[in-house]
Amino acid sequence: MAERKLWYVRRDSVVTGPFPEKVIRQHLLLGRLKMEDEVSDDVKRWHRVIDLEGLIPEVMKGDMDDPDVRQRFEAERRWADERLAIDRRTAHGLTDHPERRGVERRGIEAPESVMARELKTQLIVANRHRKPPYAVALIVALSVLGLLVWWAINTTPTAMVVVVDCQAAPAPQVNWGSCQLKGRQWRGVDIHGAKARNADFSGSILDRANMSGAEMAYANMSLAHIAAADFRQATLVGVDFQLSNLSGSDFSGADLAYANLYRADLRNANLHDARLDRAVWVDGSICAVGSVGRCIPSGERLR
């Protein structure tokens, strides 16, 4: 068996390591290692990361302006962040960036929220060091508040605000983003095109439900009974189907990348053209990138 190569990292004349290639790739995905940083396998010959194509994850080589490529990158980065939690101690020396580059858990914020948060940070720092006079801090605060008022009066909204309604009854195009919907008994409901990203359906009964075209990325559908359901063309990236009954369900053309299907019942399920990149298969194996319609084992297993 070939010997696993280890890499040393040099940044600003500081050398750390060695690290396995897997850790190097993870930190590239998370932004903790930069393309201009230098690596070496012998501490003699140094190369910029950008010049070693074999170390760069495939998902980072695509066009980030392409929405599909961008979604793949975000999913891969989230996966890397979750898997890296297992080996935190090996990450020493690569996490000196002042910002955490893992999953982006904060959603899109309005400009006034960002400005208000920055103001709060400035006031905390000023109070901690007690260097700027409080009068100056007050003037800064009033100036920013005035700017926010101006922005609210003069800015025309550029996008329609989509309202999430966790109390809404099942219906096509319903918006249940991040809602808690555990244990619902909704056999045969029609919620095609629903928006249910990060929603929790664990333990629910959704037999024969129509969820075609639904956007349900990272939803929790574990321990659920979802037999003979319609998931055609649905976005199911990162969905947790662990221990769920999915027998006879139609996943034609669905995106199941990074989904957790561990110990799920997939008897007679239709996976035609379904994408299974990096999904956890029913036996705990990890599907290889490029798995379409079936899980191609990558050699990795769920830990």
SSE layout:
Elements: E1 6-11, E2 14-20, H1 21-29, E3 38-40, E4 47-48, H2 67-84, H3 111-129, H4 134-154, E5 285-287, E6 297-301
Antiparallel strand pairs: 1-2, 1-3, 3-4, 5-6
Helix pairs in contact: 1-2, 3-4
Quick description:
The protein is an alpha+beta fold and 303 residues long. The chain folds into three domains: 6-91, 2-Layer Sandwich (Dna Ligase, domain 1); 112-154, no CATH class; 158-303, E3 ubiquitin-protein ligase SopA (Pectate Lyase C-like), CATH 2.160.20. Helices cover 22% and strands 9% of the residues.
Question: How would you describe this structure to a colleague?
Answer:
The protein has 303 residues and is α+β, with helices and mostly antiparallel strands. It has helices spanning 21-29, 67-84, 111-129, 134-154, and strands at residues 6-11, 14-20, 38-40, 47-48, 285-287, 297-301. The chain folds into 3 domains: 6-91, 2-Layer Sandwich (Dna Ligase, domain 1), CATH 3.30.1490; 112-154, no CATH class; 158-303, E3 ubiquitin-protein ligase SopA (Pectate Lyase C-like). The strands form 2 sheets. The chain has a 4-stranded antiparallel beta sheet with strand order 2-1-3-4. Strands 5-6 form a two-stranded antiparallel ribbon. Strand 3 (38-40) and strand 4 form a beta hairpin. The longest helix is centred in the middle third of the chain and has 21 residues, at 134-154. It is flat and about 65 Å long.
| Element order: H for helix, E for strand | EEHEEHHHEE
Strand order, sheet with most strands: 2-1-3-4
What's the CATH topology label of the largest domain? Pectate Lyase C-like
Low-pLDDT sequence parts:
86-118, 157-161
CATH architecture of the largest domain: 3 Solenoid
Derived from helix and strand composition plus strand pairing, the structural class reads: alpha+beta
The overall strand count is 6
- CATH homologous superfamily title of the largest domain: E3 ubiquitin-protein ligase SopA
The major β-sheet equals: 4 strands, antiparallel
Tally the helices: 4
Distance between the termini: 23 Å
* Principal-axis shape: flat
- Overall mean pLDDT stands at 79
Radius of gyration: 24 Å
Number of domains: 3
Q: Beta-strand percentage?
A: 5-15%
- The proportion of residues forming helix, as a percent range, comes to 10-25%
Query: In CATH's first tier, which class of the largest domain applies?
Result: Mainly Beta
